[in-house]
Write a structure and sequence with these properties.
heterodimer, A: mainly alpha, Nitrile Hydratase, Chain A, two-stranded parallel sheet, two-stranded parallel ribbon, 11 helices, globular, B: alpha+beta, Cyclin A, domain 1, SH3 type barrels, 2 domains, 5-stranded antiparallel β-sheet, 8 helices, 5 strands
Chain lengths: 212, 219
Amino acid sequence: MHDHDHPHHDHSHDDGAALPEIALRVKALESILVEKGYIDPAAIDVIVETYETKVGPRNGARVVAKAWCDPAYLARLRQDATAAIAELGFTGRQGEHMRIVENTQQRHNLVVCTLCSCYPWSVLGLPPVWYKAAPYRAKAVIDPRGVLADFGVALPKETEIRVWDSTAELRYLVLPLRPAGTEGWSEDRLADLVTRDSMIGTGLALQPGAAA
Amino acid sequence: MNGAQDLGGMMGFGPVLPEKNEPIFHAEWEKRALGVTLCCGALGEWNIDTSRHARETLHPADYLSSSYYEIWTKGLLKLLAARGLVSREEIAAGRSLSAPKATRPALKAADVPARLASGGPCDRPLDRAPRCAVGDQVRTRNMNPTGHTRLPRYARGKRGVIEARQGSFVFPDTNAHGKGEDPQWIYSVVFKGQELWGAESDPGLSVAIDCWEPYLEPA
């Protein structure tokens, strides 16, 4: 269908000749859908802008930081995570039925979707490529310590690992352990220590002094 | 179905490769693929379970060699053709060749924020009591349906414990196939790593999956 001099371009170019076949197919599909009146291309722009600028892991970091600081909030998260997260304004698609899972000294939690790419969009935004790709989905349930090693994380041997395979519409947010040495920190400051990976379980919260 | 989507426990894919400072999208077409998928979903011609089934019925070699947005796009093309919205001839021609089918109106840009903020809850009331209680020993069914299911192969015929009751939800196994929502109770069922993977497995590993009641039988 197309002359492929550069079949594996990862980044977009306006020059159509350099686009991979899938990009051309999506472009053709969009124009047919618009022509038939099924979609409004401006709606796509708003969707993209939402996940590029409004909905991302900063949301989840605020939930975690508040849970670290406010025992009453943590209790509400345990009771009804969807409602407690909605208190901070984070609701909606792929976050309709939220659950939190809390890391402790004894147990580390890791979230995966082996069957597709279920992920708590409302608090973490769109999933990274690795989360949706075969290596993670295959390995997380059988060798989570190996997955953690791929992320440079080594837990004590005696720490249990609980993997949550998101097979239904419940969406899991990991509450990482609060780093030592952060007593008295504000929620804003704490939120800077909460990485996306720490809320999936493939990472830990940053140590004080390590925040970007 | 036992398709390529059911990846838990497979080997040979190599390490997980996180990308430092990964961009939200890697190419312009990925943005459009996300957008057309969500916008077409809003036409009301199918549900999320139908979409997942369309993706998992890709040929396994195709599924495993496609990026996730490619999988979404290929699944969408199947659904559009199956529902008579966009024919394969139109895709090949790159333009519309027939009048549009009557659907819900197109999702408008102005309505996107509200639509994304409300999402699509799939909990449903159910007027019968759950059969299982927290702490119950259960066994997952050994089943190999040719249609859609959310019970992964690695967790079939395995003994686990009910850790929580999660409410009643749409049942994907029927909903994916136009057979109704047929709400069912969902439980968090926890399996020991050694039950799933054998005696050599990490003794500190446990795996929780969300099981609809029809997936379970008493242990």
